[in-house]
Structure to design on (136 residues):
């Protein structure tokens, strides 16, 4: 039996040797209204259920999700903000998933058949954001 599943568990997102993104000017550090900056203790978790390609797609997504997420143009705002909608965080995660899908489709080394579904969770102070991609 060949397992095609992968997991991702990264907590905290930024370790001792990683630079936390600076708080952007769009985030209200003083708390005078709008989006308020908070110190985030955030983790990224995922379960990727591969099928038909020996685990290629699930490994690709698990290995690249964190770098794709933090490369989003609004990642610093998403990481630092705590507005009630969590729109920046939702937007960054959604775009990262779409971009990873495009990257995987364009990967010439990927086996022709197969793919992966995903359950992804971003967990931070007072927030659990869950994303589901696919039919699992």
């Amino acid at each position: 039996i060949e397992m095609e599943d992968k997991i991702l568990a990264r907590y905290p997102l930024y370790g001792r040797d990683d630079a936390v993104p600076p708080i952007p000017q769009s985030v209200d550090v003083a708390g005078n209204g709008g989006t308020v900056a908070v110190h985030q203790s955030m983790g990224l978790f995922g379960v990727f259920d591969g099928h038909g390609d020996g685990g290629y797609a699930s490994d690709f997504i698990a290995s690249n999700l964190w770098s794709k997420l933090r490369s989003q143009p609004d990642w610093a705002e998403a990481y630092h903000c705590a507005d009630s909608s969590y729109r920046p965080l939702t937007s960054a995660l959604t775009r990262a998933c779409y971009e990873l899908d495009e990257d995987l489709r364009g990967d010439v080394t990927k086996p022709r058949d197969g793919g992966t579904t995903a359950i992804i969770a971003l967990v931070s102070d007072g927030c659990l954001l869950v994303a589901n991609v696919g039919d699992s």
About this structure: The chain is about 30% helix and 25% strand.
